[in-house]
Amino acid sequence: MTISMERNIVDSEKIAQLQEKARQLRVDIVKTLHKSQSGHTGGSLSAIDMVTALYFQVMKHNPADPAWPGRDRFVLCKGHAAPALYVALAEAGYFPKEDLMTLRRLGSHLQGHPDSKQTPGVEVCTGSLGQGLSMANGMALGLRLDGSSSRVYALLGDGELQEGQVWEAAMAAGHYKLDNLCALVDVNRLQIDGEVAKVMAVEPVTDKFRAFGWNVIDIDGHDMGAIVTALGQAAEAKGKPTVIVARTVKGKGVSFFENKASYHGVAPSDEELPKALECLGEQCYL
Amino acid sequence: MSTMIATRDAYGQTLAELGEENSSIVVLDADLSGSTKTSTFAKKFPERFFNMGIAEANMVGTAAGLAAAGKIPFVSTFAIFAVGRAWEQVRQSAAYPKANVKIVATHGGITVGEDGGSHQSVEDIAIMRAVPNMTVIVPADGPETAKAIRAAAAYKGPVYVRLGRNKVPTVTAADAPFEIGKGVQLADGTDLTFVTTGLMTAQALAAAETLKGEGISARVVHLATVKPLDGDILLKAARETGAIVTAEEHSIVGGLGGAVAEFLAENSPVPLKRVGINDRFGTSGKAEELLKYFGLMPIDLVEAARGVVARKGK
User: Fold this and answer.
1) pLDDT in tens, B126-184
2) B100 vs A contacts (CB less than 8 Å)
3) Could you report the predicted ipTM of this complex, rounded to two decimals?
4) Residue ranges of the domains in chain B?
5) Is any Cβ of chain B less than 8 angstroms from the Cβ of A127?
6) Which CATH class is domain B4-169?
7) How many CA atoms does the CB half-sphere of A87 hold within 13 Å?
8) CATH of segment(s) B184-311
9) Nearest-CA neighbor of A201 among A141, A167, A253, A161?
């Protein structure tokens, strides 16, 4: 089949299905984090629409064979959003959904940050911010050497762009014309200490990537149709890497989490859980 | 007079040979390929050589990504940058996932010379030794470097190889096998053992000759692999000679001396003296001058040997 046509051009019914999938995954994120009572809620909810589009529409991958050579690669550079990755991997069938309830516990294969040694489907260890795009570059270079048609996707946070290594990697990806690489930046405008703009301004993000030789697409990171379309355009762009600058809302989907830096690294409490699930259109049976 | 070869030259040559034999080998450098000798590989295999510019952190991360894609990346720059500038990338992107990344750092130690203390890494062995999953190798000479590089390529997992800038005498036997984690005895003796790594092995062999004239019989055990440490050869040396002098072109804190001291204190305590850079930074000067200035000459080892022998049985 022609990947680019079938995977990236989708009808409204398919978009509705992906939106529903993202809603379910938000529910899973909230339940998982409530159970662990530790982890990052805000940035997981802001990124999940992109993760959903990648794992359930765009990427070639095989949950029954995580090391399938023909797979596309995903690197969660903003590794603290691990719950977003884990719920997607579980939903896709890499491991049982019950495992999600062991997140961050001693003996669990679901570490606080993505760990390729322990979790099926996790490609590289991430979480120390700023290092993921370099690894994605390395994978893209390696795949290109092998003549592979597989693509590499890297999801970064906007606060993460404060790390200098990101720009070393952006420079290198532009220099080596890595058109099999697509970076997505989850611009939710908040980091632990507050607004990104106040802690250390990173805008204009689009201009910076453009200056390093990237193809730049600026979208609403919660618009599923826009996400899938942008990923399709990225696959078509030749001779340069693509960055999708996605404008998002931290804590998206749970009204009282939204746009609050205080929910960066805080899990939902017992009192918050039913309200959060209600926001997500889910009944709570606790 | 033994042959003089710089370990970095042996590295460049071996890398180019390996490139021929194994198409999975890729090489990254940070604008120092002429100095690290990766340029030899670059000329032969331009499509498998990536100059990453003056950006060591990204270079190490990119190598980890290449390893994740099934390649065997060799990453090279000066020791001070590979270990200093990119330490956390080495830890998080390479060692933590047990990525198949080979970090071959040249210009280790004070014999870098004139560039001065800023460019003389005297802590890298200690730092790399402290990282879980990391193997640390410091070859004594050119031929051993060639074998070590081949062993590193064949080994699955992260490896740090520390090389020097200048030519050093060949002290290992041409037909000596090289095995990661195994030390070699280069001279037998009964009164003490020099446990050495890198270019200090040649200094210890010279010191052992001098000591022979004084009626002191010194064994020389060369540990090319500082981690994992060869406990068997150390225990044997401690039991049979009863005194140890370690020697390295590195700080006495945390390197070979630290590793040997830790091991023997727990397993077979004997009088021990660590010879190395005495918790100081380097300084500008000629390599030979610096070895004298920092007390790394055979005569310094002779003195240390007399000291540990005198402490025996007390």
Assistant:
1) 999 999 999 999 999 999 999 999 999 999 999 999 999 999 999 999 999 999 999 99
2) none
3) 0.94
4) 4-169, 184-311
5) yes
6) alpha beta
7) 24
8) 3.40.50.920
9) A161
